[in-house]
Amino acid sequence: MRFNRALLLVPLLAACASPDGAYPSLAIRPAERASGTLAPPPTPYVPPPTPAPVLGRLEQLAADAASAHRAFLAEAPAARSAVAAASGAAEGSDGWARASVALAGLESARSKAMIALADLDRLMVDAAVEGRELERIVAARDGVIAHVDEQNTVIEGLQRSLR
After folding, report:
1. Which of 102, 112, 148, 156 could form a disulfide with 79 if both were Cys (CB 3.0 to 4.6 A apart)?
2. Separation CA 58–CA 140 (nearest Å)
3. CA distances from 43 to 39, 40, 46, 131, 134 (A)
């Protein structure tokens, strides 16, 4: 006795027909009709320019960060020398203490740049919340971040050398 697999599909074909034998219409139903109107896209938002007092504050913060970076770079050679002199010295020895104080001086110089960065972050948040232009603030902030990243690299390298 052979069984034909095609016979299994016959009940599935019957499911397409309604009880009266009519098949469903393929015409577009009212819910499928396109409706509405084509509206032009809204005009893009143009943020208002950065106010003059904020621009003045940006310049001041960038100048403060640049000054702190110059002070950091001026202190870095002395700190490198102190750390090199303390190479192999026991923790708590005079050489180690001098190197630690020199590193603390570098961290203090870095903190001045980080204060400027925190103020720039605040200006950026305020401008974003108010929907104002951010490009100038971001540019100033990116410059300060580059200084702080460079300072972090120097300090971390000297700390590894001191250990």
Report:
1. 102
2. 7
3. 12, 9, 9, 16, 19
Cα distance between residue 87 and residue 26, in whole Å: 87
Give the list of residues 6+ apart from residue 23 with CB closer than 8 angstroms, or none: 16, 17
11-43 pLDDT, tens digit each: 666 665 566 767 777 888 887 877 777 788 888
CA nearest neighbour of 151 among 96, 111, 101, 99: 111
H-helix or E-strand spanning residue 87: none
Q: Phi/psi zone of residue 145: left (φ > 0), alpha (ψ -120 to 50 degrees), beta?
A: alpha
Summarize pLDDT for 97-153 with one digit per residue, the tens: 888 888 998 999 899 999 999 999 999 999 999 889 999 999 999 999 999 999 999
Cα(85)–Cα(89) distance, integer angstroms: 8
Rounded Cα–Cα distance for residues 10 and 4 (Å): 11
Give the global pTM: 0.67
